[in-house]
Amino acid sequence: MTVAGVDGCKAGWIAVIRNDAGTYAQVFGSFAELLAAMPDDTVVAVDMPIGLPDFTTKGGRGPEALVRPLLGQRQSSVFSIPSRAAVHAEAAAFTDIEAWYAAHRRSSDVAMRTSVPRRGVSIQAFGIFSKIREIDALMIARPELRGRVIESHPEVAFWRLNGGQAMSLPKKIKGSVNPAGMAERKTLLARCGHERSFLDQALPRGAATDDFLDACAMMLIAERHRRGETVSFPSPPGRDSHGIPVAIWV
Prior knowledge:
It is a single chain. By secondary structure, the chain is α/β, with parallel strands linked by helices. It has 10 helices and 11 strands. The longest helix has 18 residues. The chain starts with a strand and ends with a strand. The mean pLDDT is 95. This is RNase H-like nuclease.
């Protein structure tokens, strides 16, 4: 039986995959390519929003509002997702940084028209819109994926793996990797089912340390989900206008 934990990375997507032969990490250029490389019954937990609202209110989608209070100082890692219209507003490739910022402003305008109170799009959120669109298109076109491709969130996953306690140290400080925070997470991952030698391996090209460790956490959640041991926020999950489940699973 195959499970995979997935996070976005510079080169596309990093997947930590476990099957009967062992555990390995691999980078894929697209989410569709990732799914095609694994058996059709693979359970996939991904750090990316699944199920988008047509209109947003304060706090974003229900899942974000529910998990933030669990994380204490780490709650800023959970950012609000705007409407589907805002996410899909600017899908063209950008030729330069000025075009990118202009697209961000236009997307923010759409987000403000589809939210109360009016709220734009953060730079951080806009930076992953292309990946959100990838998954959203697949979940709309392929309803059979909805039962086995689930949304999770690394810091909420670490909270669950740590017995309901948030990580005490941040992964990054002012945009740079925090070695102490990474070490704290590696220790927890080793305690919960990963070999330390696997966690300390050289990374696949195109993935950063935090991407890899987040994917490791996602894999443990996928494993628990296959065994029926996860919980969802909210419970039961909501549904968006396409019938896609909307929940963070851990």
